Amino acid sequence: MSRGLGQLQRSICTYLAANPAQATYETLRWELFEQRKKAAIPCPDDTPARLRDGRLPGTWNSSLKRALDGLAEHGERRVIIDRRHLASMEEFVTHYPGKSLVASTRELRLVLLPALAAIVEAKKHLPRYTQVENETFYLKEYLGYNLRPFQNTWNEIEPELVKELQSVAGDDRSTLFLLVARAKSLFEGAPLECRRSIAECVQPLVEHGALSPALEKKITAFSASLVPPSQIGFLRLKSYIRSFSDIPSRGSSYRLKPETLHSLEDACPEVMKTLPGYQPPPAKKSGMWALDDGPRSTYGPEIHKLIDKTVFETFVFIRKA
To answer: What is the dihedral of CA 66, 72, 74, 77, to 10 degrees?
Structure first.
């Protein structure tokens, strides 16, 4: 017989009820920990409510994981767990800070990641790779170009799309032509160059209602099966991360690029100038001119903790059952 929910499990359920959109364990563990600290009430389960050397205590992580696993068990399942990569800049800003167990690193990310997102929104940083390049990479990396099932499905859809070319006009007709060209280059090796991915061609056709409902359903399902939307989002985010950071082929010593430091200093000067190790740029001698080919200021190692290899790990997304 069930003994009912424990205190931590009730806290998790309350948190998810107040945050109906998908949350993550990485965010949850910090927010519940801070709630417990603020309450200043002795905890019946003796879980410490204080940092250990600036880190979340291991006992807290262990207790919360056990509580969450209990809620996700079959039977009286109360939460659903989905382990996956981050799939958007919004998820990166919201959930990546909690990936670190170090309080100072989390705080750095909470403050500066929204600034990075704003820089992307303003198109001051472009992704390292286009969606076409990401699509090609995904098909090679995960499918090994074993595209026969997709080619068979495409062969069934293509005649209907070609027939639709006669009834659509303007930009939609051009987009439909590009969709056919992209598919032929992927599945038939045709020497056609298209700078849009399958998904980028399908999206505007769907938004404009350019296709019949039945054909729209077929091509939408085909696009989602070829490269799942979550993978499209993850690869796009990955492309932005690579535009922000120099990532070594070995090891985990990620470093923000000089242009990223420039952009962050422009966006958040009051934060950047208070970081440990910050040194303003040396004063230029009058009459001298030099190329701005490096950071205008000098920073200590703390700023480079903003992004590390954990950004590419899976996150534990949770929602009410």
So the answer is: 120
Domain of 144, in residue numbers: 131-231
Which three-class secondary structure state does DSSP give residue 23?
strand
Residue 53: inside a domain: no
Strand, helix or coil for residue 84: strand
Given a cut of 80, whether residue 43 has pLDDT beyond it is no
Order of strands across the sheet that contains 315-320:
23-24, 315-320, 79-84
Token duo for residue 41: 């009430």
Alpha helices, DSSP H, located in the chain: 7-18, 25-39, 58-72, 89-95, 103-121, 131-142, 148-164, 170-187, 198-207, 213-226, 229-244, 258-267, 269-272
| Cα(199)–Cα(114) distance, integer angstroms | 27
Long-range (24+ apart) CB contacts under 8 A made by 216-220 are 218/157, 218/160, 219/157, 219/161, 219/179
- 149 or 74: whose pLDDT is higher? 149
Neighbours of 206 (CB within 10 A): 14
159 is written with which tokens?
A: 């005649």
Does residue 321 fall inside a structural domain? no
In the chain, % of residues over pLDDT 70: 90
Q: Which residues on adjacent β-strands are paired with residue 79?
A: 320
Q: What is the pLDDT of residues 161-216, one digit of tens each?
A: 999 998 999 999 999 999 999 999 998 888 888 899 999 999 999 999 999 999 99
Q: What is the average pLDDT score of the chain?
A: 89
Global pTM reads 0.86
Q: Torsions phi, psi of 287, nearest 5? A: 85, -5
Token pair 């009410």 in the structure block, residue: 320
State the total domains in the chain.
Answer: 1
